[in-house]
Amino acid sequence: MPYAEVSVNSPAAGRGAYSYELPENLAVRPGQAVLVPFGPRILQGIAVEVSDTPRFDATRQLSGVIDPPLYLTAAQLAAGRWIRRHYLAPLFPSLALWLPPGFERSAESVFTRSGLDIGQIPLSELERDFLATLDTTIPADQKTLEKRFGKLAAQKAVRHLLGHGLIERRYRLQALKVKPLLERVVHLKGDPENALKNAANLLKRSPKQSAVLRLLATSRGRLPLAEIRREFGDVAAVVSALVAKDLVHIANEESRRNPSLPAAVELPMPHTLTPAQAAAVSEVTASVDRAGGETFLLHGVTGSGKTEVYLHAAKHTLKQGKQVVVLVPEISLTHQIIERFTARFSGRVAVLHSKLSLGERFDQWRGIAEGDYDIVIGPRSALFAPFANPGLIVIDEEHEWAYKQQDTPPLYHAREAARRLSLETGATLLLGSATPDIESYFKALRGDYHLLELPDRLTPHPSAPLPPVTLIDMRDELKSGNLSIFSRKLKAEIEAALKNGEQVILFFNRRGGATFIQCRDCGEVLKCRNCRLPLGFHPVENRLVCHHCNAQYRVPAVCPVCGRSRIKFIGLGTQKLEEETKKEFPGVKILRWDSDAARDKDTGYRIFDDFRAGKADILIGTQVVARGLDLPRVGLVGVINADTALNLPDFRAGERTFQLLLQVAGRAGRGEFPGRVVVQSYQPAHYAITAAVAHDYKGFYQKELEYRRLLGYPPFIELAVLTVQHPAEADGLQIAHNLKKKLELERDSTGAKDIEFIGPAPAFVPRRRGKYRWQVIVKGRDIVDFLDKACLSSGVGVDVDPLGLD
């Protein structure tokens, strides 16, 4: 008898699969979406194996397959299982990464009358009404009953009626969240020539009917009814008359909800490749032909033409009948790269990201699955597009932290997941960056990846150097009496740039108006009730905002502790920077680009388009303005404070600072104006800042690598962060201590000498959403195997290969 091992869509299912007996005459294959009983409910699942022997002695019968049939490919199934193992994540969410948007549905309770006679059972009037609404065969769902009778009253009635056997409860999956969109389409009967003759005959008697026929005849014989309505207003009677005359017919047809994509634009650089670009393209395309799952690291200085390498490699991949995945770190960056890909591959590009509506994501996913597109672009989730034969996976700005999933399991890194997927499919993985991740560059030098270099900048000026950087010690500015946020040098450079018709980018990596708010009488700092972290002041919204949980609070008139009104706003954010810039340079057109100004994808696109079109002189922004933007009229970049991330309790703080500074400096001088950069710092001697000022990636890499070797951090060891959360601070700490003791016993009993522990200690965000957070850091080698054998409780959060220790 055949059995299926099924990953079940339930938090209780954990990291394992469960054995189910297959009903007679029901064929199931690995990777197929199925329905299974789990506890008292029917839930979704994915079959991961089919065999003649169950893994568990006690089995239940599989309920059925999901219709229409849905399958993960063998490569997707294998990659999903690797994600589960490597990140110690639940199995179903690891596989569900490849499922269509809106697929996951939970079970809901439904009720029917049992047919048992009420007899002498005491029932209230509400319970009698409740029972009277139920049928013996057609089930009623709990939500509908709660709406009618009230939530608490309905739940009480259910308990009483179930207890006396008067009703029966079953479970079913909730209704589909999204379906194909159907629209009414009007079709001509006969050819357009006859339609035009009929239109001429109807012109005097029925001019509107004549006009509709003419429109259809010039529109390939078919148009959605909604489009005809937009042209002529209410046409229901007109179309009905044409149907009655047998001149047209109406059909319900599927309509794709396509997202609005930026218009295709031609690339500013010529298509002729430089020798370095040509060499890179040659190596990558040869790898695509070999289909060996190789990985390349393309290290090119800012403005060196990495995108052109992506485009040529993609063109070759499509010629081989394979598909291309292009990942960018943020939704805001899809705009520019979509422009470039649609310019070369019109009609072949799909986009997938979370800011699309559910219907748009569903239709893009189906279009990809059905072969309508062979290129997909998007942030990390686009990696899981339903391509059957991917040949090339591109990860642009591969060093970016946004490629790491940080909220809900599986806490995968898209770069590592892409590496596994490329090995399973034979696709070539191409990583691109001007400031590669330390671990990626280490692997490239060690030979795990193939290293490709683009050392020269490509601008309208041949052999243009990287923009010179002036480093300003803001301590000297203060000593000389300059209390402005602008150094004298930066102010002079902004004035010169504006006079010359150049655009300016001002970078400051902190949003809002003030860093924190403090009472000058008692010293109280206003903090988030959930996270116990200082609140930032946002003057545009006139709100206090927690930058970790996004909770918002009113600005108090008096201190909540001492009741006095001497409240001071301290520090700087992009909103405050915008205010100060307007004061310093009156009449100048300014745009601000941060997560407050661009709350949806379209606003971010609009800011980018407006600045590129010259509708503003200065762009103020957070790290989004540092990432891969090509703005040819920018002549000056000013970094207001290079130190914002430098002193965080994170071993990658220096690397992140260096990458941000080098990336934002690279926005200057990419077009007609020679670029220059002014960096303001209170720690100008820090090695990350001095290396960024010198555009010295290799020098920074060597110094950073040596520090990590001495301190025992990746790439020399592996890391995992275990997090315990509890509403009570002391209880959470005790649980964390018990966790560490358990791990120490496991290490000592297994002889895993390379494993060490740090903590427990409060997390960098010590309290989130009302729960205290304690962390135990695990360092060593083969830590995934060690933690897997330790059988951690499901209540312990596990982050393997964390971005940092914050």
Automatic annotation (TrEMBL):
Q: Which InterPro entries match?
A: DEAD/DEAH_box_helicase_dom, Helicase_ATP-bd, Helicase_C-like, P-loop_NTPase, PriA, PriA_3primeBD, PriA_3primeBD_sf, PriA_C
EC top class, in one word? isomerase
| Top-level taxon | Bacteria
Q: How is the cofactor bound?
A: Binds 2 zinc ions per subunit.
Q: Where does Zn(2+) 1 bind?
A: 519, 522, 559, 562
Q: Start and end of every Helicase C-terminal domain?
A: 554-708
Q: What Pfam families does the database record attribute to this sequence?
A: DEAD (PF00270), Helicase_C (PF00271), PriA_3primeBD (PF17764), PriA_C (PF18074)
Q: Does Cytoplasm count among this protein's keywords?
A: no
Q: A single GO molecular function, which one?
A: ATP hydrolysis activity
User: Which keywords does the record carry?
Assistant: ATP-binding, DNA replication, DNA-binding, Helicase, Hydrolase, Isomerase, Metal-binding, Nucleotide-binding, Primosome, Zinc
Q: Which SUPFAM superfamilies match?
A: P-loop containing nucleoside triphosphate hydrolases
Q: Name one GO biological process term.
A: DNA replication, synthesis of primer
Q: Please list the residues that bind Zn(2+) 2.
A: 528, 531, 546, 549
Catalysed reactions, semicolon-separated: ATP + H2O = ADP + phosphate + H(+); Couples ATP hydrolysis with the unwinding of duplex DNA by translocating in the 3'-5' direction
Matching PROSITE patterns:
HELICASE_ATP_BIND_1, HELICASE_CTER
Listed EC numbers: 5.6.2.4
One GO term of the cellular component aspect?
Answer: primosome complex
The Helicase ATP-binding domain is annotated at: 287-454
Names of the cofactor(s): Zn(2+)
Subunit structure, briefly? Component of the replication restart primosome.
Function of the protein = Initiates the restart of stalled replication forks, which reloads the replicative helicase on sites other than the origin of replication. Recognizes and binds to abandoned replication forks and remodels them to uncover a helicase loading site. Promotes assembly of the primosome at these replication forks.
Q: Which family does it belong to?
A: Belongs to the helicase family. PriA subfamily.
Q: Which PANTHER family match?
A: PRIMOSOMAL PROTEIN N
Name of the protein in question? Replication restart protein PriA
